[in-house]
Design a protein that fits this description.
The chain is α+β, with helices and mostly antiparallel strands and 135 residues long. It has 4 helices and 5 strands; from the N terminus they run H-E-H-E-E-H-E-H-E. It has a 5-stranded antiparallel sheet with strand order 4-1-3-2-5. The longest helix has 20 residues. The radius of gyration is 17 Å and the shape is globular.
Length: 135
């Protein structure tokens, strides 16, 4: 009986502490006609930001299955960042998204959408379908 209670307690703590952030930024990948744009420019920026600012890990989730052409969202946890880091992170993220949108073919490539003032809460993500963590 003690083993069962201990197992349940460990499992419960693991689930409770699995998501560390309470606030997430949302990046949406939308299609125009021929699929979504690559997430590579944004992921490259995240890698460079982590290295430059010595951030151990950013909490990143991907929600797929949002449309017929592979639309999806990325959610990035920001609670582990200091206020200055968060401001620099948002500026750089806006620049990465903007440069990707400016380089796209207007008639066929999809768009990357990012609104810095739109904050997604942990409770909203807990109700999301098709959500996977990216490491």
């Amino acid at each position: 009986m003690k083993k069962v209670v201990l197992t349940i307690a460990i499992f419960g703590c693991t689930l409770f502490f699995a998501q560390k952030s309470e606030n997430y930024l949302q990046i949406g990948y939308a299609s125009v006609c021929c699929g979504t744009p690559s997430e590579k420019p944004v992921m490259d920026y995240l890698t460079k930001f982590k290295q430059k600012n010595k951030v151990k890990n950013l909490e990143i989730y991907k929600q797929s299955g949002l449309g017929r052409e592979g639309e999806y969202n990325l959610y990035i946890g920001t609670d582990a960042l200091s206020k200055t880091q968060k401001n620099n992170f948002i500026k750089g993220l806006k620049a990465a998204v903007s440069s990707q949108n400016n380089a796209r073919s207007k008639n066929s490539d999809g768009m990357v959408n990012f609104n810095e003032s739109e904050i997604i809460k942990k409770a909203d993500l807990s109700n999301a379908r098709n959500l996977t963590q990216i490491k």
